[in-house]
Amino acid sequence: MRHAPASPDDRGTPGVPAPAAPPGPVPPLTSGDVMSALRDVVDPEWPVSIVDMGLVHAVAVDGGVVSVTLTLTSTGCPCVEMIREDIRDRLRRLPGVGDVRIALTWDPPWTSDRLSEVARERFRRWGVAV
Amino acid sequence: MSTPLLDRASALPQDCVPALVDLVVALADNKHALGLRYGEWCSSGPTIEAGVAATAMAQDELGHARVLYGLLEELPGAPHRSEHEWAASDARTAAFLDRPFPGWPHLIVANVLLDQALASVLETALLSRYLPLRQRVRKILEEERYHAIHGQGWLRQLAAEGPRVRELLGEAVRAAWPDALCWFGPADGGSLRPLVDAGVLREAGDPVRERFLAGTGPLLSQSGVAAPVRAEGDRWVLTEPLPWPVWDERARRVRGGAPERDTR
């Protein structure tokens, strides 16, 4: 948490720890926070985040409820439950999140155009054509 | 002015809901059954690559079934179906899928005829007014493009091996033909007609069948595989009537079960 710089009079005695600042209000969760957290969720088949894979279509925050609209690279993706569970686990660790709702969409369909430059660079390094 | 989209089941005209339920159940059940049948060849295709392809197609078909079963959840009167609760006795599938394929040529014929017949029906929903269906179809058809390429390539390759293999292919075509060609419905679409009228499907019946034959007829003919279809001018037409008296519109299969197979 960031605090405003202390005033000269608040500096306390050198060598003596300053009293802990009282906890401030938790800033409201934003879509950006959710997207950042989703960067920690890795596609089970490739060590690339689901955000860089282009699997996250949209996120929305409504109070403590986070909604994620997700697509998959193929309809038969065998990892769908694993990905859902990893998303829930990660987002529930965000302060203020009470419920995580995940909806699957197939429109527009996933194509390799949705890969980020980070993902493309990794695939190139692994010798995978994208 | 464009026709408004129907974004939920309650917006559908009531008279087309039972037809849509029957169609989705039959599409999804056939895809599930195809997935299981393809899957039986994961490690026993004629080459390692063929087994890998069968595996990939099996995974796709099971995925398509899962995506389509999801449509049933909001359709009133729809039976409960899921990929985890497959009850073959209750399934509405083509007779050709009732038993394991006796050989690779049968898998390829299922790939060319049944898989692509289902894709042809789904193609008529690409711009469906019913949004939940439309949102699923594009992805399924993108994956089906590769199944079509696989089937066409293998059919040509097998047929080139000689008259005995072409004969086997012809027998499989004859067995799969009635269900595949009847799937589009009778001339005016039959039970699919209300779905066309409501804009859920673009068309049904003869126009879809003719387009299917325009692709399949030349493939079979050029490969030397016997099939009841011939060129007539710039069209491909049936040389034998389809068995409409024994076609079950609701189950979308020819009554009487699977024909006995020659497993030579």
List the topology elements.
The complex is a heterodimer of chains A (130) and B (264).
Chain A: H1 31-38, E1 56-62, E2 65-70, H2 80-92, E3 99-104, H3 117-125
Parallel strand pairs in A: 2-3
Antiparallel strand pairs in A: 1-2
Chain B: H1 17-39, H2 48-72, H3 104-123, H4 131-159, H5 163-182, H6 193-197, H7 206-223, E1 229-232, E2 235-238, E3 247-248, E4 253-254
Antiparallel strand pairs in B: 1-2, 3-4
Helix pairs in contact in B: 1-2, 1-3, 2-4, 3-4, 3-5, 3-7, 4-7
Summarize this entry quickly.
The complex is a heterodimer of chains A (130) and B (264). In chain A, 23% of the residues lie in helices and 15% in strands.
Q: What does this protein structure show overall?
A:
The complex is a heterodimer of chains A (130) and B (264). Chain A is built from three helices and three strands; from the N terminus they run H-E-E-H-E-H. With 130 residues, chain A is of the alpha+beta class. Chain A has one domain: Fe-S cluster assembly (FSCA) (GMP Synthetase, Chain A, domain 3). A three-stranded mixed sheet of chain A has the order 1-2-3, covered by helices on one side. By secondary structure, chain B is mainly α. In chain B, helix 1 packs antiparallel against helix 2 (48-72), helix 1 (17-39) runs antiparallel to helix 3 (104-123) and helix 3 (104-123) runs antiparallel to helix 4. Chain B has helices spanning 17-39, 48-72, 104-123, 131-159, 163-182, 193-197, 206-223, and strands spanning 229-232, 235-238, 247-248, 253-254.
